[in-house]
């Protein structure tokens, strides 16, 4: 069940039990820093990402996103391995206030399948499109109110 942060924090009764269930740790990173939780994060149809879950950064004490890309066959991954690793190494170097931070990635090989897991910053305000839409509305409202105040003088 996908639940927004607002839904998660509001109300009472069954929500608290649901929230406890969603905070259950499903998996831990090899270094032990990141802990995957049950709660799914909506990524807005990002191609290639099989799943995105909320996770906890145990060093920083903040929520992050645990993303997974699955390769159905190991040989497909092996053919692209160098390119994939180079791409993630480059993404981890990007430092910009308007770009989601890539923290770490690793590869998990099980059952003749490859799974690339990467940890990204969690943007609680939703997608960039949603954020810009909200701030644009707030900016217009602010300008109208400012003009109203100016005309009162």
Automatic annotation (TrEMBL):
InterPro entries: Kinase-like_dom_sf, Ser-Thr/Tyr_kinase_cat_dom, WNK_Ser-Thr_kinase. This is Serine-threonine/tyrosine-protein kinase catalytic domain-containing protein. Residues 1-44 are annotated as: Disordered. Keywords: Cytoplasm, Phosphoprotein. Its main location: cytoplasm. It holds the Pfam family PK_Tyr_Ser-Thr. Residues 81-143 form the Serine-threonine/tyrosine-protein kinase catalytic domain.
């Amino acid at each position: 069940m996908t639940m927004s942060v607002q839904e998660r924090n509001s109300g009472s009764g069954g929500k608290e039990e649901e929230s406890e269930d969603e905070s259950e740790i499903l998996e831990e990173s090899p270094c032990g820093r990141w802990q995957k939780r049950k709660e799914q994060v909506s990524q807005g149809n990002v191609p290639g990402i099989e799943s995105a879950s909320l996770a906890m950064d145990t060093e920083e004490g903040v929520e992050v996103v645990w993303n997974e890309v699955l390769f159905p066959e190991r040989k497909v991954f092996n053919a692209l391995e160098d390119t994939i690793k180079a791409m993630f190494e480059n993404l981890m170097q990007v430092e910009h206030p308007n770009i989601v931070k890539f923290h770490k990635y690793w590869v998990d090989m099980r059952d003749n399948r490859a799974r690339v897991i990467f940890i990204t910053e969690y943007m609680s305000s939703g997608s960039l499109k949603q954020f810009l839409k909200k701030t644009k509305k707030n900016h217009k409202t602010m300008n109208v109110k400012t003009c109203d105040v100016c005309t009162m003088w």
